[in-house]
Amino acid sequence: MESRVALIGIMVENPDSIEQMNQLLHEYGNYIIGRMGIPYRERGLSIISIVLDAPMNQISSLSGKLGMLDGISTKTIYSKVST
Fold first, then answer.
1. Eight-class DSSP state of 69
2. Quick check: helix, strand or coil at residue 20?
3. Tens digits of per-residue pLDDT, 7-36?
4. Any residues with CB less than 8 A from the CB of 14 and at least 6 apart, and which?
């Protein structure tokens, strides 16, 4: 199956959803290349970027599941290069 590199940007506004978010990221862990999180305490936000190398359907599935969590917003950017 064709694989793409993608970046999922995550904004966490509800800390109660972090456990569910981490569980989802664990489920897709074999596709994750790297993860970076930045706490923005002044605004009560956590900003997380996830870089994946995965089939398009897996990237879309993870992004969609994350976006359905309460207080979590996502945007996904795809590389034009595929394998």
1. S
2. helix
3. 999 999 999 999 999 999 999 999 999 999
4. 69, 70, 71, 72
Q: How many CB atoms lie within 10 A of CB 12?
A: 22
φ/ψ of residue 6, rounded to 5 = -145, 155
69 Cβ neighbours under 8 A, 6+ residues apart: 14, 17, 20, 21, 24
> What predicted TM-score, i.e. pTM, was given to this entire model?
0.90
The answer to whether the beta carbons of residues 38 and 8 sit under 8 Å apart is no
Nearest to 8 by CA among 81, 28, 16, 17: 28
